[in-house]
Design goal:
Layout (H helix, E strand, L loop, with lengths): L2 H14 L5 H8 L3 H13 L4 E4 L5 E4 L12 H16 L5 H13 L3 H11 L11 H16 L1 E8 L6 E14 L2 E8 L4 E6 L3 E10 L8 H9 L10 E7 L1 H8 L8 E5 L2 E6 L1 H5 L2 H6 L5 E5 L1 H18 L1
Antiparallel strand pairs: 1-2, 3-4, 3-7, 4-5, 5-6, 8-10, 8-11, 9-10
């Protein structure tokens, strides 16, 4: 058996018996007694409170309160889990209470040295985000449960004009967190197609008695990206956008959610991406405006002209 399997088996033995000697463990696992000592030491370092008693009736045993909660995380793993929990909570993770409970248990059953080290690494580690609406949190919980169990949901949804409500029945396939917003990817019974809905636009949400089976091998992430990015399978309809500029600006541009997925060629001070004409004429100019004079559009010409038009309109607006 592997080291991990042996360590798990040792814990199982200690859980099912009050006390065991190193010799008894070695004979049961058919391993060297020195190896048992190493495994016991590794378990103790991982935070498992194993009691060692010397003498004729001595041996190894577990503290009663730890029997159901053995930990196998080293210091770096515990630190990573707690750091990740901070990101999860700040993104609006819908099961924050359970997350807090898990982290509390992790801290409770670690040793004092590890806990002190973890707390020192948490000092100054923060994530800043927009506070979430408590109602949104309950919707996310319901959607996550319905995705897992295949429940059809009925919702009142705020349309894009933000004044009209639409009643929809949906089969939720997945949840996506993107740019500080939550989206549910679902089959819409009214439209008879898979769509994405912003969870913060849901006014009411109820589980129905209907159930569904999700499509085989369906990826909510792939569906979402496909709907916000140009179709790379139709390259003949895409237009090359060439931009040059300062190295820092080019680096930031290449990390933007749109350009990062559509890179064709790049150097430190030059980048080429391929986009459809609609994107180039609509939201791309507004993205590029934020970079000011640190970048310069090489082509296409109509993108330059569109930038001039937008800037002229802004100038006239504030004149």
């Amino acid at each position: 058996m592997s080291k991990t399997d042996n360590m798990l088996f040792i814990l199982w033995l200690l859980k099912t018996r009050k006390r065991l000697t190193a010799k008894q463990i070695a004979e049961t696992l058919e391993i060297n007694i020195r190896t048992v000592y190493r495994y016991i030491d590794a378990l103790c370092v991982s935070g498992v409170p194993i009691i060692s008693e010397a003498g004729h009736n001595g041996g190894y045993s577990l503290l009663d309160h730890s029997i159901e909660v053995p930990l196998f995380f080293d210091l770096d793993e515990q630190k990573a889990l707690i750091h990740a929990s901070i990101f999860a909570k700040e993104s609006g993770y819908p099961f924050e209470d359970s997350l807090n409970s898990a982290i509390a248990k992790l801290k409770m059953y670690t040793n004092e040295k590890q806990l002190d080290e973890i707390n020192r690494h948490l000092t100054g580690f923060d994530v800043i985000s927009t506070p979430t609406n408590p109602k949104l949190n309950s919707y996310l919980q319901e959607i996550e449960q319905s995705v897992a169990n295949g429940f059809t949901l009925e919702m009142e949804y705020q349309k894009r004009d933000k004044q009209t409500l639409a009643s929809r029945h949906i089969n939720p396939y997945g949840l996506i967190h993107w740019k500080s917003k939550w989206y549910v990817i679902a089959f819409c019974h009214y439209r008879q197609e898979i769509r994405s809905f912003r969870v913060d636009r849901i006014e009411s949400l109820n589980r129905t008695i209907s159930t569904f089976e999700p499509p085989v091998d369906f990826s909510s992430k792939e569906f979402f990206l496909k709907n916000i990015l140009p179709d790379q399978n139709t390259q003949e309809n895409l237009i090359s956008v060439e931009i040059k500029g300062k190295e820092q600006a080019i680096n930031e541009l290449c990390q933007h959610w749109l350009f990062a997925h559509l890179l064709v060629e790049r150097t430190n001070e030059h980048v080429i991406v391929k986009l459809d004409e609609k994107a180039i004429r609509t939201y791309v100019p507004y993205i590029l405006l934020s970079y000011g004079k640190s970048i310069q559009i090489v082509e296409p010409l109509f993108l330059k002209e569109r930038m001039i038009t937008i800037l002229t309109e802004l100038l006239n607006h504030y004149d």
